[in-house]
Amino acid sequence: QALTQAEKLGDKKEIGHSLRYVATMLYLFKKFNPEKSLDYLERSLAVFEDLGDQEGIGLALNAMGNVHSRQRNTDKALEYYNRFLTIAEALNDKRSIGAALNNISTIYMDKNDNDSSIDYLKRALAISKETGEKASSAGFLQNIGWNYSQKGNYSCSLDYYEGALTIRENLGQKLVASGLRNFIGWGYKDMGEYDKAVKTFEKNMSFDDGRGSISWDLAGIAIVDFNKGEYEAARDNFDRVFAIRKKHDITEFELYLTTYRFLIYKHLGEDFDLPLIQKLIKNSKPEDIYHAGKFSSYEKNFRLY
Questions:
Q1: C-alpha 151 chain-centroid distance
Q2: Exposed, middle or buried, 200 (CB in 10 Å: 0-12/13-18/19+)?
Q3: Contact status, residue 69 vs residue 84, Cβ threshold 8 Å
Q4: Sign of CA dihedral 146, 152, 158, 159
Q5: Rounded distance, CA 196 to CA 185, Å?
Q6: CB-based contacts of 98, cutoff 8 Å, min separation 6
Q7: What are the tens digits of pLDDT across the range 175-218?
Q8: Any alpha helices (H) in 171-230, and if so which ranges?
Q9: What letter would DSSP give residue 283?
Q10: Cα–Cα distance measured from residue 74 to residue 107, given in angstroms and rounded to the nearest whole number
Q11: In sequence order, which residues have a C-beta less than 8 Å from that of residue 143 and are 6 or more positions away?
């Protein structure tokens, strides 16, 4: 409707923004239509280029990068994000500079180039501190922590998570703070500090968002049980995890968690539905293959990876 109204009024700038809004709706929601979204964005970009509107050009380029990022066209996404960054820097638009740096960092994260991702995030963090955007600072701290965890530097990762958590708690952002505490629990788990991990997970379970988020804390506890060789406790906790996931239709990291569950059943000498694993592998997401592939026994057990 906004696009139709803008076209009736002949307001080119508003037409450009409306085209971008329509494209955003097309790539944000489940009915992802990249071709149509990019078509709207090309039209939006053309309008802003005709007007010489650098800010509008930058926003259109950024949105195009988002579409390619979602398609995992990382090189193309990086190209558009860098063009957005160049324009933002020319305009000295610090908020847009921070957004561009963050977006570029996510591409390097997808490429498993954690060092480059950290470099861009630290630049974005410096800008957010300068402008006093605390929520943005917390997000950058969290992403830096995630990169360090992927590098295996769990101690450094926890420092950044704790910094992000302090900001989120001070801002009263309970849901996001809960997610960070879960990350901290997993960090302790990865460091082998199982008692601290379990205490963190159990404390975090006191916050229930009603959407199944506690399943992630339970999963952490179950994996600690597995690592300690307490397979019956691990099985019982994973049964609870999957019951919650089913109730709330949670599918993220399904293969990763199911792989653990399979190994637990195997240790207990109990039957498990191997075709389920095969089906999950066939329909898996890249992050699932990445994490499940970390198991040394994965290829030996499944002969499919």
A1: 17
A2: buried
A3: no
A4: negative
A5: 7
A6: 124, 127, 128, 131, 133, 136, 140
A7: 999 999 999 999 999 999 999 999 999 999 998 888 899 999 99
A8: 174-190, 194-204, 214-227
A9: T
A10: 6
A11: 102, 105, 106, 109, 117, 121
Give Cα separations from 39 to 23, 26, 50, 63, 79 (angstroms).
8, 11, 17, 12, 18
Choose among 146, 136, 138, 206: nearest CA to 178: 206
Please write the tens of the pLDDT for every residue from 47-62. Answer: 889 999 999 999 999 9
Residue position matching structure tokens 């039209």: 43
Tokens of 250: 């949670």
Nearest 5°: the CA angle 174, 177, 183 is: 150
What is the phi/psi pair of residue 185, to 5°?
-60, -45
How many Cβ atoms sit within 10 Å of the Cβ of residue 59? 24
Q: Provide the residue count of the chain.
A: 305
CA dist 87 and 72 (Å) reads 24
